Amino acid sequence: MVKQVKSVCTLLLALAMSSSAVYAADESKSAHAQIMQQSGTCKGVVVDATGETVIGASVVVKGTTNGTITGLDGDFILAGVKKGDVIQISFVGYETQEVVWNGTSLKIVLHDNAQALEEVVVIGYGGSQKRAALTTAISKVDNSVLKNSAFSNAGQALQGSVTGLRVINTSGQPGTTPNMVLRGGATITGSNNNALVIVDGIVRNSMADVNPQDIESIQVLKDAASTAIYGARANGGVILIETKSGKEGKATVTYNFKYGKNFSRKGYDFLNARDYIYYNRLGMRRTNEAVSAYNSNGYSVDGQMGYGIGNTNFDIRYLTDETSHLQNEGWSLMDDPYHDGKKILYKDHSGILDDAVFNNSAATQEHYLNIAGGNDKGTFAASFGYYDEDGQVKSTGFRRFSGNLAGSYRVLPVLLVKASANYIWSTTPEIYSSNYNLFYRTRSQRPTWNPYREDGSPAAGFGSADGNPQYWISKLQRDNSTARYTFSTGFALDIIKKQLVLNGNVSLLNYQYQKETFNKAYQQQNQGSPNTTRSSSVEIDKYNQLQMNTTLNYTNLFNGVHDVNVMLGGEYYTYDRFTLKGNAHGAPTDDIATMNVASEYDGISTVKTAYRILSAFGRAEYNYKMRYLLALTGRYDGISRLKDNRWGFFPGVSLGWNVTEEDFWKEMKVADVITTLKPRVSYGTNGNVNSLGDYTVYGTYGAQINKDFKLPKYNNATPFVNTGLLNTGLRWEKSKTFEVGLDIGLLHNKLSFILDYYNRETQDLLTSLDLPGYTGFSSVTTNMGNLRNSGFEAEIRANLIKTKDFTWDMTANVTTVSNKILKLPKNSNANNRVGGYEVAAGQAVKNPDGTWKYNTKWVGGRQEGGKLGEIVAYQQKRIYRDWDDVKANANMLYDDVGKLYGPGLADEYKGKAGYKPIEPGDVYWEDMDGDGKITSYDRKVIGNIFPNLTGGFSTTFGYKGLSLYARFDYALGHTLYNDLLARSLGQYQGTFNLISEVKNTWSEANPDADLPKFYYADQLAKYNITRSNNANLTLDNNSSRFYEKGDYLACREITLSYNLPKNLIKGAFIRDASVYVTGQNLFYITGYSGISPEPAVAGTNAAGVDDGRYPTPRTLLFGLSVTF
Amino acid sequence: MKKFFSNILFGAALFAVAACDSLDLQPESEITDANYWQTTDHFSAFNVGIHSYFRNYSYNYFLLGEPRADIYGDTPFGGEATQGMERFPYNTISEVQPGISNYAGLYNVINQCNLMISKTTDTSVLSDTDRKYFLGAAYGIRAYLYFHLLRSWGDAIVYLDYTNGATLDLSKLNRKQDAAAEVMVQIKKDIQASEEAFGTSYAFTKGKYYWSLGATKMLKGEVYLWSGKQMNGGSSDYQTAKAALQEVKNCPNVALLPDFANVFSFNNKLNNEIIFAFVSNENEFDLWNGSYRGNLLPQQAYMNNGSYYDETGTNIKETKDSQINGLTRLAIKKDLYFKLYREGDSRKAASLKAVYNKNAAGELVYVAPFAYKFQGTMLTGGSTRSMLDDYPIYRYSDCLLLLAEAKAFLNEDITAEINEVRKRAYGSNYSETVAYPNDKGDFYTDNKFVSGDEDPSEAILKERFREFLFEGRRWYDIRLFGLTSKYSTASVDKLLWPIDQSTLTNNNLLEQTPGYKD
């Protein structure tokens, strides 16, 4: 063993010597030169462009550890400097300067590097470029978005921060990854189109994988010419994140602390018990009157929970001799709107449940410690973070621990080795119920029900979603945790110093998710005995991802004008996943939640899947005097998920012209105004196969029919059927992006613009083609679709004011998206339409024989030439005011959708089962084809679920040490189906509490209302709201009244911060200290009446439907940041 | 330089490891087309798969066969919203609100049967016995499914190939319906193929949860009655039906149970009366995939709130029925409880249960009935009943009454069959007054559900109504006898089912069912 170690050491030594020998001549030469010089003391002062001294700037003799920092007057004294040494002066926020010391005092003027066009942009696989040399579309996120706010997920910081990237909060549940889609997405399904997230070169599942505080920079690669280097998986763009690393110079210790309160947004107000009883019993009376002609029994008013009388779980009684005493016990009296003359006693418990559901102010706290440093040999950075956010809903929240360690060491002058390890653990305490259940169902509990029992303990109610959450939280345990580890090692070997570098990296990502549930014994109030099933479940999901890549970089400047940079590389990627799921029940006691004490095991399943990607890639950049820029990129990828066509080539090319670098320009007067002018153009291809399962193309047999349905066992035997069609011919879907851009900098880039027009056409879309039902399969995946997204993006950054004491910066961005389906699988429908609805295309013509000739068209669904995300609904013109109105406009009207008839048709329909009369307060529907009937033809497109304009802006005012920062974002053009509003006002469920908007519905006293008369169960009454949707949670076919524009402007952050004066903190060895107050997600400016106007792109039930979402909270934070 | 080369070598080695064939991954948790159909186990598991898929649509077989008739349509006594289910008894289904979409999903099972038939026919790995069983079952199930399609939609696509990804031509997928007569021809062919495969093997080889020759014979009886009565087949078809039904007696251990309630008892599964049934099991399948509970049973909140009583005056809260937890969306007509069964008929208590209120004087006031044929079981630790009853598809009394139909259509005497069923139903209460053909008189005046024995057809229909409540028969029965106008709200031009819009869209050569066109 010892011998072996020794021989390995010898070998390493030999290798080291042999490679260092190459440079021996070089080094001895410079050593010789140094001896010739004399040491001295370099003095100087550092100021900024306004002449203000810069305190704390780092001054280092380049290539050595000899350094200092500037003092209170910006001055420095550095001993041991030789004439001719290069002095490097750097400070955060300024461009690093290098000057050669000639023995005299130095006055160094540092220039801001905040201007957009001067920034350095990371381009993947170790490459970076100055914005000035960039020819593609890459957005760099302004780091101030990450600085002050507290984020459970770094993705939240990107809302409105990145041109072209639409970031939408899908839930206010802390820890939720927002939906992030670049330029409207490149898939036709609207799913599997998230951007590829890469953190320090490692492909990540989402931005949940990184502590936002560890982030040094975020960049978004948008056009295909830039993303082509990530080839096959970069269809949705690439988010490149780099974490903080150590830098040469003095070690720093930074500690950040944040503490805040979250305030919940609850949405609509619900009725108190009196109004609840009044409206529901009135609605029941109206519905029974409407169906009385064929249903003499009617619906049972007193069979209803909550407002019916007879169920003693609810505090509602008829006034009788026996009950009248209740008036002295806190009960109130009201007239019965159902039975004329009767009186009702009730007790009001409204509002109590809200307090049981919501945290009035939940706490958020975050600690972050970062230690970094380095010298000419090596660097290191270590960090530790803790984040804890309580949700607005009690017992929900998010907690995260993270640790990061990264180091590099120059083992040999030509060999740099790097290693890093990262650990991030999080848990998302969740409750037994879905958001929909909480924000609609639980909040809608009947206010005649007391959520607490006499002894003060929470009451179970009638189900976990129909009870007091405090009861259920204690009974239904839900625990989860996610741990992610990465280990990465790599090296950079200078084969020819600063010209030819070989890099190698190996990284391993290990993901482990664990979820356990246990139901203790519980008893619902409507059940006679407790449920002691005590079921438990476990789920473990693990994957290992291994990435190995090598790249060879060549850089050279020929003749001082031809700047060439070439990179070639290869990568092998493996992904192996294992999931375990198990269920059991029958534990003898509530005390043990784990399955070891269960008496019955209900099933266990393990599943393994895997895929591999093998790639070769390259990139070449060339510029001539920074005037003419050219970049070529290409990647060749093969993936195991495909079979016959598994290899794909994804090239990109881009060109740019820095007009302002031209001599002729520099001579022009305009050169003082327009300091940067760079038109650029790019074209490239990306791929995507995310929507395919690991083995789906191979034709599968098993029990899993589709994502949502697995064939159950049959008498305990495992079933197998053919679940997936053999489909080995599938190819990569490819998106081709053409992009034209213009970078403009005015007045030494005080004002800069980055403008882009993009046109992305995705071809060979992996589109599922709905098959005719007789084939026994609902759909097959094809490569037969083309989709085009095009739009305009603009980013503006302005340094509006910059004086000694006062600064004002502003950034703004805007993105437009419009999509068009160009091609779909041929299915012999017109426009190869899939789905959709046939509706009127203009007026129908009456034939002489009295029949109608209809002129129709198809809308919605997907069709060539059409758009994604269209909403189809019935158009409400208004509400019938009174009988005169009904007789004047609907006398002979037959409504086939609601089976309703006008007064003039009573002879034909009255008494027929299911047919009801049109009455005042019902909706006056638009008869699109004018045939005097309301049918399924009388629908139209009334909006789109996607916004077509998104963006954001931010502004920073600074006065001395004070700064005020504000960030906003907006989205325009999307429509939401307000299902919660419809569900409540339609009383679809039958007995739940109603939102207070019911007071604005039509009544004799309110004939001009634009909300129809309130009925019990709209889907049994007049279909004034749900129409042919039949009260389902789906997007289309409801009344237009319940679709609302979601346009909004959100105030994401306002921060007031104060940098403590340097002279104050210097004594405490503190380099930098600041305190701040931040308000997060403060308000929306919107016309939308629901809880959150953000597009429902990832609704739990259906896209575009607002079914009661967990909204983001308002947060108020206090923060402290200290750097030693 | 050595280091450089060693790195180059490292890089090269890396790619050698990751050579192209490393992209050919063998799945570990799934089996793919290239590896299936290699062993008997594959075929056996596929046979299980077909049955599981077949059972998955059991609620649809009920929907197609029953709710459009005159059983349901009142408002639920518990006050539930009927959520569109009222459209069946009201017969207001349409293209936009079809009640059932995509041909009830039956082609999903048909396609798997087609695949099974094709692979079983071609393979050499199976023993002759196995091959015959698998073929007999697959043909039988396919015929059963097409028979639903035929009765419900009339014209229907006859699809006998399996959908093969390798040869799928996406541009030629649209197909017209085949004429109902051709569908019937195919059903008969499949029945014949099933019979031939089974040969004389009446044994329940894989148990009564799996298709058998007995099931095929039952189906054959139904099919030939339909083709005789509804498709002009006439007496030769009736003869065929009669013969097939008589052969059911060849099945081992098939007979009427002495006690009607016992046929459906949770503790008496797979009893002698059963010829073919869908199994329900814990953690596997609830009756109709939960839809029995979700449509025909009352809410526990009402059963438990103290205001309802059973016929003896006992508060339901105190009885085991307080464990029932459902939703009533198909509410049984209130007067059916008194009008369907005669005094002494044990089927009443084994099919229906009534709930009562008490009035101010403390007297019981009838409220409404609910379904009581399948009563589920209380699992250990549970607080509500789990509906784990099996769903009988064919049972022996069906055989007797179908046989009676065949005989009635042939103008033969039906007394023996009818009275065998009645004897069992009335038990010790059986007497000449309820025996065929004497069951008539006052009970049947002003009775819109059932009629006296004067007409043999009415006698059979009545007996089937009483016998097969909730077993998905009534609508098909009144259609067979042509009595939909008398026993349902359906208009005569809308006895078939509409095709939903999405199905029409996905196959634009389909034509909407007559009666539902604009």
What are the SSEs and their pairings?
The complex is a heterodimer of chains A (1124) and B (518).
Chain A: H1 2-36, E1 39-48, E2 58-61, E3 67-69, E4 75-82, E5 86-90, E6 97-100, E7 106-110, E8 120-124, E9 127-130, E10 138-140, H2 144-147, E11 165-168, E12 179-182, E13 196-199, E14 202-204, E15 215-221, H3 224-227, E16 238-243, E17 249-263, H4 273-291, E18 316-318, E19 332-335, E20 343-346, H5 352-357, E21 361-374, E22 378-390, E23 397-412, E24 415-427, H6 435-442, H7 469-475, E25 476-496, E26 500-519, E27 536-558, E28 562-585, E29 600-624, E30 628-639, E31 647-657, H8 663-667, E32 674-688, E33 700-702, E34 704-706, E35 709-710, E36 721-722, E37 733-746, E38 751-770, E39 779-802, E40 806-816, E41 818-823, E42 837-840, E43 845-846, E44 852-853, E45 856-859, E46 870-874, E47 876-879, H9 883-890, E48 894-895, E49 900-901, H10 906-909, E50 916-917, E51 923-925, E52 933-934, E53 939-944, E54 949-959, E55 962-972, E56 975-978, H11 979-985, E57 1043-1045, E58 1048-1059, H12 1062-1065, E59 1072-1086, E60 1105-1106, E61 1114-1123
Parallel strand pairs in A: 1-7, 13-16, 48-52, 49-50, 56-60
Antiparallel strand pairs in A: 1-4, 2-3, 2-5, 5-6, 8-9, 10-15, 11-12, 13-14, 15-16, 17-21, 17-61, 18-20, 19-20, 21-22, 22-23, 23-24, 24-25, 25-26, 26-27, 27-28, 28-29, 29-30, 30-31, 31-32, 32-37, 33-36, 34-35, 37-38, 38-39, 39-40, 39-41, 40-54, 42-45, 43-44, 46-53, 47-51, 48-49, 54-55, 55-58, 56-57, ...
Chain B: H1 2-17, E1 31-32, H2 40-56, H3 58-65, E2 72-74, H4 87-90, H5 106-122, H6 128-153, H7 180-198, H8 213-230, H9 234-247, H10 260-264, E3 274-278, H11 291-296, H12 300-303, E4 331-332, H13 336-339, H14 346-351, E5 352-358, E6 364-371, E7 391-395, H15 396-409, H16 415-426, H17 456-468, H18 474-480, H19 484-487, H20 501-506
Antiparallel strand pairs in B: 2-4, 3-7, 5-6
Helix pairs in contact in B: 2-5, 2-6, 5-6, 6-7, 6-8, 7-8, 8-9, 8-15, 9-15, 15-16, 15-17
